Amino acid sequence: METERIPAVKMEQHRTGRIGWLRAAVLGANDGILSTSSLVLGVAAAHGTHGTLMVAGVAGMVAGAMSMAAGEYVSVHSQADSERAELALERAELSADSATEQKELTAIYVGRGLESALAEQVAKQLMAHDALGAHARDELGISETFRARPVQAALTSAGSFAVGAIMPLAATAMSPKVGMIPFIAGTSLLFLALLGAAAARIGGAAVTLGALRVTFWGALAMGVTAGVGSLFGSLG
Protein backbone atom coordinates (compact mmCIF):
# COMPACT_ATOMS: atom_id res chain seq x y z
CA MET A 1 0.00 0.00 0.00
CA GLU A 2 1.47 3.31 -1.07
CA THR A 3 1.69 6.13 1.41
CA GLU A 4 -0.15 9.22 0.28
CA ARG A 5 2.25 12.05 -0.33
CA ILE A 6 1.39 15.54 0.74
CA PRO A 7 2.14 17.92 -2.13
CA ALA A 8 4.74 20.57 -1.49
CA VAL A 9 3.26 23.98 -0.85
CA LYS A 10 5.05 27.08 -2.04
CA MET A 11 5.28 29.53 0.85
CA GLU A 12 4.02 33.02 0.14
CA GLN A 13 6.47 35.86 0.55
CA HIS A 14 5.13 38.42 3.02
CA ARG A 15 6.58 41.72 4.16
CA THR A 16 6.01 41.24 7.88
CA GLY A 17 9.59 40.03 8.34
CA ARG A 18 10.80 43.48 7.31
CA ILE A 19 8.82 45.38 9.92
CA GLY A 20 11.49 45.45 12.62
CA TRP A 21 14.40 46.84 10.62
CA LEU A 22 12.20 48.80 8.19
CA ARG A 23 10.63 50.85 10.96
CA ALA A 24 14.01 51.74 12.46
CA ALA A 25 15.59 52.46 9.07
CA VAL A 26 12.77 54.69 7.84
CA LEU A 27 12.52 56.53 11.14
CA GLY A 28 16.28 57.09 11.24
CA ALA A 29 16.64 58.26 7.63
CA ASN A 30 13.56 60.48 7.84
CA ASP A 31 14.79 62.05 11.08
CA GLY A 32 18.27 62.47 9.60
CA ILE A 33 17.01 64.40 6.60
CA LEU A 34 14.42 66.40 8.49
CA SER A 35 16.45 67.26 11.60
CA THR A 36 19.57 68.24 9.71
CA SER A 37 17.80 70.24 7.02
CA SER A 38 15.63 72.01 9.60
CA LEU A 39 18.69 72.82 11.72
CA VAL A 40 20.58 74.18 8.73
CA LEU A 41 17.58 76.20 7.55
CA GLY A 42 17.09 77.65 11.03
CA VAL A 43 20.73 78.78 11.15
CA ALA A 44 20.50 80.12 7.58
CA ALA A 45 17.35 82.08 8.42
CA ALA A 46 19.24 83.60 11.37
CA HIS A 47 21.79 84.92 8.83
CA GLY A 48 24.44 82.31 9.53
CA THR A 49 27.41 81.97 7.19
CA HIS A 50 27.98 79.01 4.89
CA GLY A 51 30.67 77.71 7.23
CA THR A 52 28.40 78.02 10.22
CA LEU A 53 25.72 76.05 8.41
CA MET A 54 28.14 73.21 7.69
CA VAL A 55 29.39 73.08 11.28
CA ALA A 56 25.84 73.07 12.61
CA GLY A 57 24.82 70.36 10.14
CA VAL A 58 27.73 68.05 10.95
CA ALA A 59 27.23 68.52 14.69
CA GLY A 60 23.54 67.79 14.27
CA MET A 61 24.29 64.65 12.28
CA VAL A 62 26.66 63.22 14.91
CA ALA A 63 24.47 64.15 17.85
CA GLY A 64 21.33 62.89 16.12
CA ALA A 65 22.84 59.55 15.16
CA MET A 66 24.02 58.90 18.71
CA SER A 67 20.67 60.01 20.11
CA MET A 68 18.80 57.69 17.75
CA ALA A 69 21.03 54.76 18.64
CA ALA A 70 20.66 55.32 22.38
CA GLY A 71 16.92 55.92 22.21
CA GLU A 72 16.21 52.88 20.06
CA TYR A 73 18.44 50.62 22.14
CA VAL A 74 16.87 51.64 25.44
CA SER A 75 13.26 51.45 24.22
CA VAL A 76 13.63 48.18 22.32
CA HIS A 77 15.70 46.65 25.14
CA SER A 78 12.85 47.46 27.52
CA GLN A 79 10.51 45.59 25.19
CA ALA A 80 12.93 42.65 25.07
CA ASP A 81 13.11 42.59 28.88
CA SER A 82 9.32 42.49 29.08
CA GLU A 83 9.20 39.64 26.57
CA ARG A 84 11.77 37.63 28.54
CA ALA A 85 9.84 38.19 31.78
CA GLU A 86 6.59 37.07 30.16
CA LEU A 87 8.24 33.96 28.72
CA ALA A 88 9.81 33.10 32.08
CA LEU A 89 6.41 33.38 33.76
CA GLU A 90 4.78 31.24 31.09
CA ARG A 91 7.54 28.64 31.39
CA ALA A 92 6.94 28.43 35.14
CA GLU A 93 3.17 28.09 34.65
CA LEU A 94 3.67 25.31 32.11
CA SER A 95 5.93 23.47 34.53
CA ALA A 96 3.51 23.89 37.43
CA ASP A 97 0.20 23.07 35.71
CA SER A 98 0.41 22.10 32.05
CA ALA A 99 -3.18 20.83 32.02
CA THR A 100 -4.58 24.25 32.86
CA GLU A 101 -2.30 25.85 30.30
CA GLN A 102 -3.60 23.46 27.66
CA LYS A 103 -7.15 24.49 28.54
CA GLU A 104 -6.16 28.14 28.13
CA LEU A 105 -4.74 27.41 24.69
CA THR A 106 -7.87 25.44 23.77
CA ALA A 107 -10.06 28.38 24.80
CA ILE A 108 -7.98 30.70 22.61
CA TYR A 109 -8.52 28.50 19.56
CA VAL A 110 -12.24 28.18 20.31
CA GLY A 111 -12.41 31.97 20.45
CA ARG A 112 -10.81 32.06 17.00
CA GLY A 113 -13.50 29.85 15.53
CA LEU A 114 -12.44 26.22 16.00
CA GLU A 115 -14.84 23.62 17.38
CA SER A 116 -14.08 22.56 20.94
CA ALA A 117 -12.91 19.05 20.06
CA LEU A 118 -10.66 20.27 17.25
CA ALA A 119 -9.33 23.14 19.37
CA GLU A 120 -8.42 20.69 22.13
CA GLN A 121 -6.67 18.41 19.64
CA VAL A 122 -4.72 21.30 18.12
CA ALA A 123 -3.69 22.60 21.55
CA LYS A 124 -2.57 19.14 22.62
CA GLN A 125 -0.47 18.55 19.51
CA LEU A 126 1.11 22.01 19.54
CA MET A 127 2.03 21.70 23.21
CA ALA A 128 3.53 18.30 22.59
CA HIS A 129 5.68 19.85 19.86
CA ASP A 130 6.62 23.15 21.54
CA ALA A 131 4.50 24.17 24.49
CA LEU A 132 6.29 27.42 25.27
CA GLY A 133 6.40 28.44 21.61
CA ALA A 134 2.67 27.82 21.21
CA HIS A 135 1.77 29.89 24.26
CA ALA A 136 4.24 32.64 23.37
CA ARG A 137 2.75 32.97 19.91
CA ASP A 138 -0.96 32.49 20.57
CA GLU A 139 -1.39 33.67 24.18
CA LEU A 140 1.29 36.37 24.50
CA GLY A 141 1.57 37.47 20.87
CA ILE A 142 5.36 36.96 20.82
CA SER A 143 6.81 35.45 17.65
CA GLU A 144 10.27 35.27 16.12
CA THR A 145 9.30 37.69 13.37
CA PHE A 146 8.32 40.43 15.81
CA ARG A 147 10.84 39.75 18.59
CA ALA A 148 12.57 42.85 19.96
CA ARG A 149 16.20 43.17 18.76
CA PRO A 150 17.81 46.15 20.56
CA VAL A 151 21.24 46.07 18.90
CA GLN A 152 19.77 45.72 15.41
CA ALA A 153 17.37 48.60 16.04
CA ALA A 154 20.12 50.84 17.46
CA LEU A 155 22.59 50.23 14.63
CA THR A 156 19.91 50.55 11.96
CA SER A 157 18.61 53.82 13.39
CA ALA A 158 22.05 55.39 13.82
CA GLY A 159 23.27 54.32 10.39
CA SER A 160 20.12 55.38 8.58
CA PHE A 161 20.10 58.73 10.42
CA ALA A 162 23.65 59.42 9.29
CA VAL A 163 22.81 58.45 5.70
CA GLY A 164 19.74 60.68 5.78
CA ALA A 165 21.69 63.59 7.28
CA ILE A 166 24.35 63.42 4.58
CA MET A 167 21.76 64.38 1.94
CA PRO A 168 20.91 67.88 3.25
CA LEU A 169 24.57 68.35 4.20
CA ALA A 170 25.57 67.69 0.60
CA ALA A 171 22.87 70.09 -0.56
CA THR A 172 24.19 72.71 1.86
CA ALA A 173 27.75 72.25 0.62
CA MET A 174 26.63 72.74 -3.00
CA SER A 175 24.09 75.50 -2.33
CA PRO A 176 24.62 78.89 -3.99
CA LYS A 177 24.93 82.01 -1.85
CA VAL A 178 21.89 83.48 -3.56
CA GLY A 179 18.74 81.43 -2.95
CA MET A 180 20.46 79.16 -0.44
CA ILE A 181 17.38 78.60 1.72
CA PRO A 182 15.02 77.61 -1.16
CA PHE A 183 17.72 75.34 -2.60
CA ILE A 184 18.31 73.47 0.68
CA ALA A 185 14.59 73.26 1.46
CA GLY A 186 13.67 72.07 -2.03
CA THR A 187 16.33 69.36 -2.23
CA SER A 188 15.55 68.18 1.30
CA LEU A 189 11.83 67.89 0.51
CA LEU A 190 12.72 65.94 -2.61
CA PHE A 191 14.83 63.55 -0.51
CA LEU A 192 11.95 63.14 1.94
CA ALA A 193 9.49 62.43 -0.86
CA LEU A 194 11.78 59.78 -2.34
CA LEU A 195 12.28 58.21 1.09
CA GLY A 196 8.55 58.12 1.75
CA ALA A 197 7.90 56.54 -1.62
CA ALA A 198 10.65 53.94 -1.13
CA ALA A 199 9.45 53.03 2.36
CA ALA A 200 5.87 52.66 1.12
CA ARG A 201 7.07 50.52 -1.78
CA ILE A 202 9.07 48.20 0.51
CA GLY A 203 6.22 47.95 2.99
CA GLY A 204 3.61 47.32 0.30
CA ALA A 205 1.66 50.54 0.93
CA ALA A 206 0.51 53.27 -1.47
CA VAL A 207 3.62 54.97 -2.85
CA THR A 208 2.06 58.36 -3.62
CA LEU A 209 0.37 58.63 -0.24
CA GLY A 210 3.59 57.67 1.55
CA ALA A 211 5.55 60.33 -0.32
CA LEU A 212 2.95 63.04 0.29
CA ARG A 213 2.64 62.25 3.98
CA VAL A 214 6.38 62.56 4.62
CA THR A 215 6.72 65.66 2.43
CA PHE A 216 3.88 67.50 4.17
CA TRP A 217 5.23 67.01 7.68
CA GLY A 218 8.74 67.74 6.50
CA ALA A 219 7.70 71.04 4.95
CA LEU A 220 5.84 71.97 8.13
CA ALA A 221 8.85 71.22 10.33
CA MET A 222 11.24 73.13 8.07
CA GLY A 223 8.90 76.11 7.89
CA VAL A 224 8.53 76.33 11.66
CA THR A 225 12.29 75.99 12.25
CA ALA A 226 13.13 78.59 9.61
CA GLY A 227 10.57 80.93 11.14
CA VAL A 228 12.10 80.58 14.60
CA GLY A 229 15.59 81.13 13.17
CA SER A 230 14.45 84.23 11.32
CA LEU A 231 12.81 85.60 14.47
CA PHE A 232 15.88 85.17 16.64
CA GLY A 233 18.10 86.43 13.82
CA SER A 234 16.14 89.67 13.65
CA LEU A 235 16.28 90.06 17.44
CA GLY A 236 20.04 89.64 17.36
What would you call the quaternary organization? single chain
Question: What would the principal axes of the Cα set say about the shape?
Answer: elongated
The chain-level structural class is mainly alpha
Quickly count the helices.
7
| Head-to-tail CA distance between termini | 93 Å
Largest sheet: none
Helical fraction: over 70%
Q: Which blocks of ≥5 consecutive residues have pLDDT under 50?
A: none
Give the rounded overall mean pLDDT: 82
Topology, number of strands: 0
The whole-angstrom Rg is 25 Å
Proportion of residues in β-strands = under 5%
Order of helices and strands: HHHHHHH
SSE topology sketch:
Blueprint: H1 19-45, H2 50-96, H3 98-111, H4 116-138, H5 150-174, H6 180-203, H7 207-235
Helix pairs in contact: 1-2, 1-5, 1-6, 1-7, 2-3, 2-4, 2-5, 3-4, 5-6, 6-7
Write a structural description:
With 236 residues, the protein is an all-alpha fold. It is built from seven helices and no strands. α1 packs antiparallel against α6, α2 crosses α4 and α6 runs antiparallel to α7.
